[in-house]
Specification:
Helices cover 29% and strands 26% of the residues. By secondary structure, it is an alpha/beta fold. The strands form 3 sheets. Strands 6-7-8-3-9-10 form a 6-stranded mixed sheet, with helices on both faces. It has a 4-stranded antiparallel sheet with strand order 2-1-4-5, covered by helices on one side. It has a two-stranded antiparallel sheet with strand order 11-12. A hairpin with a 2-residue loop joins strand 1 and strand 2. Helix 4 runs antiparallel to helix 5 and helix 5 runs parallel beside helix 6.
């Protein structure tokens, strides 16, 4: 069953077409990752799915209905988006930031409720941010700050979360911390997670479904083990690589070709020599 679908979708800015006549369906209850070269339209596609960018042609369908025809608050109760590099007002506490996720449920006559407070506390607990709720967001580390923003999206109580490069500018430890959190949310709550990632190996490790974008269209879509290959990486990223298996997770792992120090010694001459192993995944 699909959560979001794009039908004959064309997107762009002014006269510049970024996505052209694209069709795609995002499976419900899975983690889907958009991958592709810089400027291929990954973030543009994600923004259109959150109704932040109006299509030039075609439509985005959310739970069977054209998202453009749905009331804004109805959309906000069904999906939440975390843009790239969000910035909070100076001095805003984590608790106050997370409270913003309850905005879609506010009306002129409905004040802050016990239900709202419970949703905020649950979001803080799910992201391990309860102990930091009184800290200002701008005083947090990169990983903590990203968890605070994710907590805000959780407080919206949507079944779908969209994230644009949630690991950008984070060190390796905090990248894994954030991706582990999203993986746990998917497992525990059957959340549909859709995100843009640049690291293809992390995408393979965490995604159930990968969408590779090239030339304004979907080049390939499916399970990482089904679509990630040397040819696919070369076509989409213009990069030669070997594709083997992650020794810990068994997921596809790309080893890019290129220059660098070589510590492999020839069995014949005993001299250092760089050779590329035959790919296990053609």
């Amino acid at each position: 069953m699909e959560t979001i679908a794009a039908k004959d979708l064309t997107l762009g800015y002014g006269e510049d077409i970024i996505i052209d006549d694209l069709n795609i369906a995002i499976p419900k209850g899975q983690i889907t990752v958009f991958v592709g070269g810089n400027g291929c339209g990954k973030s543009t596609l994600l923004r259109s799915m959150a109704r932040l960018l109006k299509p030039k042609e075609g439509s985005v369908v959310l739970h069977g209905e054209d998202i453009a025809k749905k009331p804004t608050k109805d959309v906000a109760k069904q999906l939440a988006i975390l843009p790239q590099g969000p910035v909070s007002p100076e001095g805003l506490t984590v608790h106050d930031l997370v409270k913003q996720g309850r905005h879609p449920y506010k009306t002129l006559f409905k004040k802050w409720s016990t239900e709202d407070e419970e949703a905020v506390n649950e979001a803080l607990q799910s992201t391990n941010m309860m102990d930091l709720k009184d800290r200002s967001v701008d005083s947090l580390s990169g990983g903590q700050r990203q968890r605070a923003w994710i907590a805000m999206t959780l407080a919206q109580k949507t079944d779908t979360i969209l994230l644009d490069e949630p690991t950008t500018y984070l060190d390796m430890t905090h990248q894994i911390e954030v991706l582990d959190l999203l993986f746990e949310l998917n497992e525990k709550h059957n959340s549909t997670v859709i995100m843009v990632l640049h690291d293809l190996n992390l995408a393979c490790r965490y995604a159930h479904n990968i969408v590779a974008i090239k030339d304004k269209k979907v080049y390939a879509q499916g399970k990482p083990e089904e679509i990630i290959s040397c040819n696919m990486v070369h076509d989409v990223f213009q990069m030669k690589c070997d594709v083997t298996y992650d020794p810990m997770f068994g997921t596809p792992m790309c080893i890019p070709h290129g220059r660098g120090r070589c510590l492999i010694k020839s069995a014949v001459s005993g001299e250092e020599t760089c050779s590329v192993a035959t790919s296990q995944l053609n």
